[in-house]
UniProtKB/TrEMBL annotation:
InterPro entries found in the cross-reference section: Bact_solute-bd_prot1, SBP
Listed name of the protein: Sugar-binding protein
Organism: Actinocatenispora sera
Gene3D superfamilies: Periplasmic binding protein-like II
SUPFAM superfamilies documented for this protein: Periplasmic binding protein-like II (SSF53850)
Keywords: Cell membrane, Lipoprotein, Membrane, Palmitate, Signal
Amino acid sequence: MVPHTPPPVPRRRVLQLLGGAAVLPAVGGLAGCGGSGGGNGAEGSGKGTLTLAYLGDATQQAAFKALFADFNKAHPDIKISATGIASGDWATFASTISTRLAGGTQYDIVDVATEGQLLMSSKNVLEPLDRYIAKDKAVVDAYYAGIDPHLKEWTKKYGSPDGRTYFIPGGYNSMVLYCNTEVFAKAGVELSDDGQWTWEQFKAAGEKINARTGAYLTALGDGAFPFGDIMPWLLTNGASTLSADWKQPTFNSPQAIEAATFVKSLLDAGLAPKLGGTFDAAAQLAKGKLATLGGGRWPTLDMRRLKIVDKVRIMSWPTKTGPGSPIGWDGWPILRASKNKAAAWTFLKWLMTKDASEFYAKVGGTNVPALTSVAASSTFLSDAPKGSELLAAAIAHGTPIPSPKQGAAVQRAISAGWKSALTGLKPVKRSLDAANEQLKPLL
């Protein structure tokens, strides 16, 4: 249940979809489909071994292994043979999977981030889930009733080219700011009770913090991770990289240009470290040399590892015209080539249970649980920074991360344009104008 989870795997450096290849962001080094029994029908619960893969570093793999073991306790006739691939980003992960697919490897289940859902469902490699859902309508209806309605709506709208259902939506991520409260207190800057602030208030806080403590306000990416580097700034100013249907580029709108200009001003003022080089943001936050760190749920694991949960508070992303956040979520499909679809559907049904959601949150899940009740529970909010409830609240004003089929080329143009603007290689407007022109033939 790791949709776009970075740190240590940057939560969504947008999946580079490798041109026209049928990229499956999913399983790891497991050759062959699951074992015995179950057949291809929706009947029965199935048995045998399911092959499954996901993107995850060592910490995330430990959480997944515990999750799979818990599933096996509930369904002892079904075992999960899974591999977590510790790729540096979704692009590398996708490249690995694509190579294995080209070599003839088959899988039962994959964990697909938003960036890969439309591409995968367009390649005729996924099993339509509608008849499985009809058979277990009560179970699925109860799940959908318990999650934010956006997840069901977006999964169908953006992950299905033909109206059929290919994914069960899972946990998601939004973008917020993790703030070192000791740094703010030392600088005499108060954080609002409601967790809200504007761009101007954010920059003003950074100027005081830098002058009084020498700490940076925040760490800014160069655009290689659009989910976190670019989209929050655009969305909080009413802009985006693409239109809502992902068919037209909007990267050079006046609002987008204003957002890039503001972010560049933070760099120019010395409120963020220079782009390039190595900067361990979590470690610098712990040392009091960085005031804020942007991220989804995943930095919470770093806060725990560094033992600074109690001195960190989550704030919403600062706004210009209104609240906004990119949203990326897990999609769980069954592959058409699976020889054990009944068992695969049993696993997907289990993922929809409250027990599975609570268990994953408890063992260190790196996203917001899809079930609203679990996201609001102590299971998710305990041993986490104050303000963690803002992660789930962000979905109400969130926007799906734009994920067209030509994702690799789209990402390259967007990332290059943003980096050009921030580094001053070209003026901001010229940088985004050029990127926007490159996007047009790709959509």
